[in-house]
Design brief:
This protein is an alpha/beta fold and about 280 residues long. The chain is built from 10 helices and 11 strands. Strands 1, 2, 5, 6, 7, 8, 9, 10 and 11 form a 9-stranded mixed sheet that branches. Strands 3-4 form a two-stranded antiparallel sheet. Helix 1 crosses helix 10 and helix 4 runs parallel beside helix 5. The radius of gyration is 20 Å and the shape is globular.
Length: about 280
């Protein structure tokens, strides 16, 4: 983890809102932008990241320094770690109590050989329980950038997401913003987006809680088909409306992070330059 520059957690108090889809697409958008990315799946009871990325039949390898993650392709720009790689079978359940869950999450944080990473995306299960406390406490020493909160527009989802926002504030995890997923339906024939659920719930929640609204992600049938078949949605449909919000977030995030890195580098090198000048070198 010492060689990971930025850590972003994807959270939601509600299940079924598309956290894993947002996590996988966020990771692929960052990789497509030329960044070295890791995707850590800590949804121990429902690990869907390997299937979404088409790597569920691959296996992690043990090295002297820890687990070597699975890479999605030969470029090795996107590395993945999930409990699914350790289960052996797709239908094998994880029937564990809290302490064992906490133990494996701690091992995921400490014993995965990520190498040099620009970004680590952490996909979490729904709720505010053992897994969330474990991952937040364990990555805190690495100064995570914060959390992306995922919701759908309906009130029943917003009520649970408010609890997740309160959780983040209690554990002092910064919130980068809220994404409204499943916001409208994109017709595969004409590309028109129609609201089939309520709308603007995510935006109103962001305004109510004083956090940033990152945008809406509509339902796109092509995204579902790519995920089911482990195909890259960003390569197959780079201009889809379903990618616009995450692409905008990634672009702005990279610009902000690169600017901070440049400022830090300049500040670090300034004393040496000043000292050399004062000594007549």
């Amino acid at each position: 983890m010492e060689n990971v520059r930025h850590i972003i957690l994807v959270l939601s108090g509600k299940g079924g809102v598309g956290k894993s889809t947002v996590s996988s697409q966020l990771a692929m958008c960052l990789a497509a932008a030329g960044k070295r990315v890791g995707l850590l799946d800590v949804d121990l009871c429902g690990p869907s990241i390997p299937r979404l990325l088409g790597v569920e039949n691959k296996a992690v390898h043990n090295a002297s320094t820890g687990w070597v993650p699975v890479y999605t392709d030969a470029t090795q720009r996107l590395a993945v770690m999930s409990i699914q790689f350790l289960l052996g079978e797709r239908d094998a359940p994880v029937v564990w109590r809290g302490p064992k869950k906490v133990s494996i999450i701690n091992r995921f944080v400490d014993e995965v050989c990520w190498g040099e990473l620009d970004y680590l995306i952490i996909d979490t299960p729904p709720g505010t329980s053992d897994e969330h406390m474990a991952i937040c406490e364990h990555v805190k020493k690495y100064n995570p950038d914060g959390a992306v909160i995922v919701t759908t527009p309906q009130q029943v989802s917003l009520e649970d997401v408010r609890k997740e926002i309160t959780f983040c504030r209690k554990v002092e995890l910064p919130i980068l913003g809220v994404v409204e997923n499943m916001s409208g339906y994109v017709c595969p024939h004409c590309s028109e987006c129609t609201n089939i659920f309520s709308s603007e719930g995510g935006r109103l929640l962001a305004e109510e809680t004083g956090i940033s609204f990152l945008g809406k992600i509509p339902i796109d049938p092509s995204l579902g088909m790519c995920g089911e078949n482990g195909l890259s949605f960003i390569q197959a449909h780079p201009d889809s409306q379903a990618l616009a919000t995450l692409q905008k977030f990634v672009k702005e995030r990279i610009q902000t992070d690169d600017a901070k890195t440049k400022t830090t580098t300049t500040a670090t090198s300034t004393p040496a330059t000043t000292e050399a000048a004062s000594s007549g070198v």
